[in-house]
């Protein structure tokens, strides 16, 4: 058993029953010309977490732990993209439109690939998800159940959108969830701070938070 001095109280986990879940660390959100920028965001803020994510991914792999990568991705015919999602707001480019990195948020396009430094290895779980949550309309829960996974350690982007949604979905499915504070980022720093607070409030109502150095120390 491994124990992290997490907030709001220690987080205990066994590596064999814990998966590292990296949410949507794809070019669409962290590079110029993708979905994130099309919504009017400064994507540079998100790039700062990539080294910490990389260190955690390397250490988790070296420990032999289960790794899950997700991508927010739609089918090329957009049959899994509700019009309400595509038509929301007034972005420069909408989902499915052709951008500098290919069609926005469409599976298989260059912008939809996970950033090279975090690219999935053969054997790792890769989930293309049409929603903000990683469990909605995906086989993730069944895949984790098959492997006996009970605990999930989260990183990825953005904190208050796809990460928090996925953590809440996981929490309702009975997983003990930890969010790595320095492996997640938002386009809005205040939203990240608020999300960390609300996740761990009320006795870890959604889950725990800790830092990547704490996890790295525990793994080595
Ligand atoms: N816009 C925003 O902050 N996020 C998303 O649309 N998707 C994810 O968080 N992956």
How would you describe this structure to a colleague?
By secondary structure, this protein is of the alpha/beta class. It is built from 9 helices and 10 strands. A hairpin with a 6-residue loop joins strand 1 (about 1-5) and strand 2 (about 10-15). The radius of gyration is 16 Å and the shape is globular. The relative contact order is 0.21. The structure holds tricarbonodiimidic diamide.
Biggest sheet overview: 6 strands, parallel
- Counting DSSP H or I runs of 4 or more residues, the number of helices is 9
Q: What is the average of the pLDDT values?
A: 98
Principal-axis shape equals globular
Outline the low-pLDDT stretches: none
Bound molecules: tricarbonodiimidic diamide
Proportion of residues in extended strands: 15-25%
Care to count the β-strands?
Answer: 10
State the separation between the terminal residues, measured CA to CA. 13 Å
Keywords: Hydrolase
Region (Disordered): 71-93
GO molecular function, one term: hydrolase activity
Protein name: Cysteine hydrolase
What's the quick description here?
The chain has 220 residues and is of the alpha/beta class. It is 34% helix and 22% strand.
